Amino acid sequence: MSVRNDILSMIKKYETIIIHRHQRPDPDALGSQVGLAEILRASFPEKNIYQVGGPVEGLEFLALMEEVEDSVYQGALVIVTDTANSPRISDNRYALGEKLIKIDHHPNDEPYGDLVWVNTKASSCSEMIMDFYLMFEDELTLTDNAARLLYGGIVGDTGRFLYPATTSHTLEVAAVLRGCDFDATALNRELEQISMSVAKLAGYVYQNLEVDADGAGKVLISHEMLTEYGIVDSETASVVPLPGTIDEVLAWGLFVQQPEGYYRVRLRSKGPVINEIAKRHHGGGHPLASGANARDMDEVREIYAEIQQACQNFIQEVVE
């Protein structure tokens, strides 16, 4: 019996189901979380299904969260999507439920929960939720809004189907979702468009990108710079892929200073594995896309040195 069978059996047992995702959500976090919530609401209208986790930081066009009292968690099933480790779960009340399910596509470094379904080969957690629906298509109902959310999550985490995690299966799943009744053109436009202030920040990123001879890149964005451009940290996600459009860049880090002084670090790569770097610095993620934190400039320099070493090692392996 597969873990997906176990998950469906547990869903059927509970009257109240509360679905969480990670802090600072991206389209896949919201797509998988609320896409699953929409499927379960349509499939089990007698159940109480909630989506929680606080502000969605500029992604209100995808979905909004609900407010629930602590008492709602009593005897409830909690499902967490797209979240590799428990400290990143948005709203720590996830632990108040009776049972906990983890559904994720990141490396399973922390297998929290009573049931764990992790598929690191999936392009996104939204793809996994769609796989869950397709496995039990005769028992579950896919609404048009659920399809919109899941499609948005897949598009977001695959970089519009450009990233290596995009497989033929990803495209097959996306094709099924695209056949549902929602405005994919409008959704893609909302996912892609940026404000004028973020566009100006993009120019700053290109102008201030530091790249060494081995293709290791670094961009430092101070809190003062964010204030000058009138940008909040969540908006910087749009500029993270930009260094990768440059042919000389092999792996890179975007270091964004927070109001408290520490740096939020977004790591990306075209080949060198960088999630081990992230793990050493209070983070984690995929081999080619990860996040970390640096307490100060000393740790920023340390992380960049590790990116440089990863690029050197990768080039050496290719040569050999």
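The record above closes out task 2.4. Task 2.5 opens with a second protein, given below.
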Amino acid sequence: MSIKFEEVMGQPQAVRLLSQAIDKNRIAPAYLFVGPDGIGKRLSARYFVEYLASREDTPEHLARMRKRMEQGNHPDLLWVEPTYQHQGQLLSVTQAKAEGVKRKAPPRIRIEQVREISQFLSRPPLESPRSLVAIDRADLMAEGAANGLLKTLEEPGQATIIAIASSEAALLPTIVSRCTRIPFYRLSPETLAQVLRSRGYEKIVDHPTVMALAQGSPGEAIAAFEQLQACPPELLQSLQNLPPTPRERLTLAKTIPQTLDTPTQLWLIGYLQQFYWQNHQSSQTLQPLEKASRALLSYVQPRLVWEVTLLAMGSGQ
């Protein structure tokens, strides 16, 4: 059975390694899909588990399999995502956003979720040749969860576990050593543009700041463009063409934290750094913005951060 990654573009090495594993029927008990975010790791994992769960190599069977997995109702697949703890419950990023939960700390893969993996793998697969577990953003795993996962990887049973991570550095070396590594790389500018056009995002290709900010990641390009669309145009215009007087800049500094939450402010700083470098290549603007990012991450009062930043930025853009 030959695997077909129809929508995975710009990752020939990963596609080749996974296709060979299936063609030769040499499936490892654990894989590590590693590389920057937004370049096809999750999509590749979904294709891979779809084929691993299949008993028939027909388009009709694979279409049914894909639909069931997308709906999350396949008994032999467990897809684990980072969660927030809220009022005794674990909420995914999507659930937390839908319920309006304030997120002060990043989400984590928690020990409770690793215990769920262990329980899931304690029974034999019901419909597929093997049980399948995908751990999205495994690099956001708490220490206790990582130690628990290590025990599971030592005796996975009749299963294949896929850890998806943006970097190996945040993972235990013993976890990395027990996984077959599948590397993913940032796309070339040409391939990035091709992927975005194929998905209906032609407007992004015509936005040089967003394309540069994406650094070869279609996912990051789309996320950046959506962030940009959510930012009030008049606020963005004022930040790209700073008002000349200190009084006007102080008024603008007051408006920013009133309009945007802290994560969006941090994203905006990165966007402005890229914008000013592309258009002016001036350290007068880049250095204050870099200091602003560090200050916000250190929980300095946002209005004060923006007041100092906008007054420090050069006026000769």
